[in-house]
Amino acid sequence: MLKEKVASNTQEITFNDFKTEVLNDYRIAKVSRECSLLGRREVLTGKAKFGIFGDGKEVPQLAMAKAFKKGDFRSGYYRDQTLMMAIGELTAQQFFAGLYGHSDIKEDPMSAGRQMGGHFATHSLHENGSWKNLTEQYNSSADISPTAGQMPRLLGLAQASKIYRNEKSVQHKTKFSKNGNEVAWGTIGNASTSEGVFFETINAAGVLQVPMVMSIWDDEYGISVHAKHQTTKENISEILKGFQRENDTNGYEIFVINGWDYVKLVDVYQKAAKIAREEHVPVLIHVKELTQPQGHSTSGSHERYKDKERLQWEQDHDCIAKMRKWILNFELETETGDILRFVDSEEELLIIEKEVKKEVTEAKRNAWNAYLNEIKAELLIAAEILENVASKSVNGTFINKHKNDLLATAEPTRKEIISSARKCLRYLKEEHFGAKIELQNFIKASVNEGYKRYSTHLVNDSDSSVLNEVERKPIYSPEKNLVDARIIMRDNFNAILKKHPDVLIFGEDTGLIGDVNQGLEGLQDKYGDIRVSDTGIREATIIGQGIGLAMRGLRPIAEVQYLDYLLYALQIMSDDLATLRYRTFGKQKAPLIIRTRGHRLEGIWHAGSPMGGIINNIRGIHVLVPRNMTKAAGFYNTLLEGDDPAVVIECLNGYRLKEELPTNLGDFKTPIGVVETIKEGTDITVVSYGSTLRLVEEAAKDLAQDGIEVEIIDAQSLLPFDLNHDCVKSLAKTNKLIVIDEDVPGGASAYILQEILENQNGYQYLDSKPTTLTAKAHRPAYGTDGDYFSKPSAEDIFEKIYDIMHEFNPNRFKSLY
């Protein structure tokens, strides 16, 4: 055995070990490439719907994998299959299972068929929803398709290491960090660096100085669009030179490297990891001269937009071809004059390549059989049931045709099976026999199983769900202690920070001044500028910070100053946070609490209440709309008892109003998904939320003088809404309903109306038309008068309710107009 030693990064290993490592890397690269090639064919033959692969990016990902350690996190995109294979978190069979959309989490551990292939995730949670030890495994945060959408989350994943290293209160959480030594690895295509969230994240990471290594895979194209249309100077690292750290300034270490140079890539990634891991300095690696052998995806051919010269260049600079040539040409002369080689002849590589083709072909076949055989077994059960039904039905001829068509299907889908079964049931409307019941049960079971496969885990359904938390009422001292409501927020946050050492609060103006409404006054001085901190004006990455921190075991409260500003971050909330638990089949979670404020401030850009847009874009996140600060504080206390993501929207005009200060701060809890009846009445049910409730209460007093007793219900939370169906119980008493809010027409009020009338079957109790009262369709105009004429006023509420009562009893309630 040869004992000569060669340098491999910072370690010395025997040449044989080095040789084994290189040839194994080559094998992994070839496996990945063969998966890409066969994956495209599977799409074009119809076995898979769509494919987007990592061909052309294999060699730099091999280098990255060598620097990627257990405990590290990846936040990348759909080209990273080689990295996942190299760290042992993706097999060829799993690759194809994802391509086919296999709904078994054991077959497709990335998403159980909920995302298309190429979206990679590891499992952070045990079956019961509790955390695994993340420092003992390689971690990949679940990918999303929207370009650059992975960037904000990457910031938080990296910042977590900095917090674990520097904040004593969380250093006991050893399942999540070992002294902050973990690196967050980001990847992105060069064209996607044109997205705003890329620049926002790059800037924020430079400010925060977090251990992040950002790789940009540069093949000069974004789908069909060349870099000259994407990037100033056609060079992302060139225009980011200003971020290079110098002397004592913060910033980045920046490397530029060709993507086909295996040796230099390994060296650069080792250096980058060392800088990020030890110094907590972000690193940017611009990996150039990469190729895309099959074009962007299976939806088209790159021959349409690349000329012959470019196509030839791509063949010549293919990173695997370059690595192969290097392996064949490699020679190292020892001190004794011996010549060391990786292979003695090309035949050795040909053997590897032949074995790889066989291995991947077998993996593809096994994945397809595992996927298809499950469905075929269900088809046979359905066919047997249909045969039994057909033998007893007068419409047996038609039913048999469906059965025979199913049996003739070589590659059936579940859709075809259940669709045929449901169509056959229509033939049996007038017939009654045992086989029909069997068919009905089969359909019900299939639909139920389909729900489990494709609709579970939208929200937390484990024991740690906050929906399991029951109300704990505020306790008050005998001497009534009225204070500005902001004091309740401040003192409750103080209790939270004391009770929960892993809670961090951050946002615009959150730290030094204690937020614009003084709800965190003095808390940075008390708990330090890590636990209560300011951020830049950058809403998307504020949310991204929160997602990443929450995925690493911390309990962040991310503050977006005003509700309208939430729109800057809506894409990150909708595509990433809201879908995280769902798209990983419950294997990852991010219990982020988003704090913001809205309602009734005067002016277009600070007074909107875009609740309909929010609740319809972020299903998977709880949306909480407390009417006062005591209720809001109770929501924070409740949320910290579970691990669900949520948005808490505080009333902007409520901080200076007087409320009684509870004595059990940090302990009282507002239940989620539970409405509260704040005034009982017999004539009409009024459902509202937030600041509008104060106007409803004002109008209710005036209505009472006219003999109209209003029952007022505070929705409290919109997602979820009224899990106990208390609204319909009220409607059964009053028989009339109005929903009032300050969103646009058809927004949250329409959502509430549907919940009560449809989901709670409230329609059956009505003796007049249900209605809504909302703001105008435009944003509210500026000033007191603008607010009055743009949003529901107390007079609007009075007249709308009075008009309903007039229609119901015109003799008693004479028309106002």
From TrEMBL:
Its cofactor is thiamine diphosphate. GO terms for biological process: branched-chain amino acid catabolic process; response to nutrient. The keyword Oxidoreductase applies. One of its GO terms (molecular function) is branched-chain 2-oxo acid dehydrogenase activity. Its EC number is 1.2.4.4. It is an enzyme of class 1 (oxidoreductase). Coiled coil: none annotated. SMART domains: Transket_pyr (SM00861). Residues 483-657 form the Transketolase-like pyrimidine-binding domain. Keywords: Oxidoreductase, Thiamine pyrophosphate. PANTHER family: 2-OXOISOVALERATE DEHYDROGENASE SUBUNIT BETA, MITOCHONDRIAL, 2-OXOISOVALERATE DEHYDROGENASE SUBUNIT BETA-RELATED. E1 component of the 2-oxoglutarate dehydrogenase (OGDH) complex which catalyzes the decarboxylation of 2-oxoglutarate, the first step in the conversion of 2-oxoglutarate to succinyl-CoA and CO(2). This is 3-methyl-2-oxobutanoate dehydrogenase (2-methylpropanoyl-transferring). It comes from Polaribacter filamentus.
